[in-house]
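Below is how a single chain appears once it has passed through the pipeline. First comes the sequence as given, then the structure the pipeline wrote out for it. We keep one example in the README because the format questions we get most often are answered faster by looking than by reading.
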Amino acid sequence: MDARKQVDTNGLSFMRLIEGRYYYVDKTLLVKDLLDHNAEGVYLYTRPRRFGKSTNISMLDAFFNREYRGNTWFDGLLISDHPECDVHKNAYPVIRINLKSLYTSGSEYSFFLDKMASTLQDTFRNFAYLLDSEKLLDSDKDLIRDILSVRAREGFMQTCILKLCKFLEIHHGVKAVVLIDEYDSAVTRSMDDREVQKRIIGFLGEFMSSTLKNNDSLRMGYVTGVMQIAKAQMFSDVNNLTVNNIFSEMSEERFGFTESEVRKILNYYGKDDRFDEVREWYDGYRFGNAEVYNPFSVMSYVSNGFKPEDYWIDNTNNLAVEWLVDRVDLDTLGERANLVNGKEVIVDHIQASLTYDDLDGSGREELYSLMAMTGYLNAIPREGGGYTLAIPNSEVIRSVEKLLGKKIRISGERSATFARAVLDGDAAVMTSMLADILTNSSYFVLKDESSYENIVLALLHGMLGGYTVNQELEAGNGRADLILKPDFPGGVPVIMEFKDERSECDLEASAEDAIAQIHSRKYYMGMHGKVVIIGLAFHVKTPCAKTEILDLRSV
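Resulting structure:
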């Protein structure tokens, strides 16, 4: 790319970005954020994957670590405009721990322990010089040797960073800074084995508590992850913990790229004319009050010749979201269809702190909370309470469509046939296709056979792109089960009422009752032109459909 700076999409450290002449978007004011808030605090920063957490943690290492004294990496960067921070520059021993690769799905707990032992060995190697310290006791050095030789017992592994902080303070006369990256990765990756996950949470809870709670040799603690695992499970009694998540205003622009940063990138590479394309594909995230772009996707777009693709989705671990989608089944299919089609969904609450026991319930709130924390949804607080949810951009829409497709194993052709039958009021075709779906479980997984409304939505998923789905919506003089409202002029509204019968012999009469209910309660009030009304009755796996086509003239 001529003499222009290189583009990194492989997660190089801050030091390598600067020394290797890579394009670096300046996020060094994160240092000032921490020092201004509490120079001796413990921080938990949660953001979606590939949004700059690891780059930022390597930048903090470069700034605080006494090992790098005399470096010029920060010359000309934003933090250099704040000389009041210089007293902290390269002033502390820094313990940096990456917990990303502690567990592989399907492994035993012993695998986690082995990987933890290896990770701690790598961490302690940076401080092997302590074995020559005249200030440490021989017993202290024996503990260091245990970690270096991977002989340490599980209990000592949980407390060894606390010990290392004390050893470093004894040797240097200065308290240590501890940086822990991706603390929740092993917990997320073990979601398919609850017993292993419970043991991992127990180990990491003790590890975090020992390292960050009442550690008199700790100057500052900084932890990153995708989600905040509830304090009771992971950060028990860490009294000085500051949690910074997607709703926090402090450091709101330190993760992800702002619009001005994206424009500057495109200008540098001579592609100012591509801004609208980048905005459509990679904008739409909101952290605090800041609108930000996906940084990994923007740089991948530049690196791949300015070609728009869903780069982020193919480079993240989707296990948590896929796990939850599998358990929610089709309960929120209508809302998810609206989200995929660029519409908003209103919820009363988003859980910023989740326990993995909560996720076993796998309800609507848990699904949307997890999707917001992991970057699949943008959650904007509403005045008076609640949140407005929307999928951020085209890249994520593609991903959610793929996840939805895993649940709906119905071909586009079958979906189109059912949609035509609905719009034509063809009750016979609808009944036949529903009977086929109900008796053939290979099409998609249902939580229970009475989820008939969601079965119909699954069959209609191909046409929902032009409709807004309203389930249990107040309409006319009552509440309709399902209304599909067209988003385009001349579109045909569809109103459906569902009945679940105990006896198969009552199905026809029940379907007729559903039609009568639509009329009696005037669910079509305010609609004009052609309107399709459908009564659907079910007894276990036997359906019956009745339809009418109304012609509602404008008054």
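Residues 442-450 have pLDDT under 50 and may be disordered.

See the next section for the split statistics.
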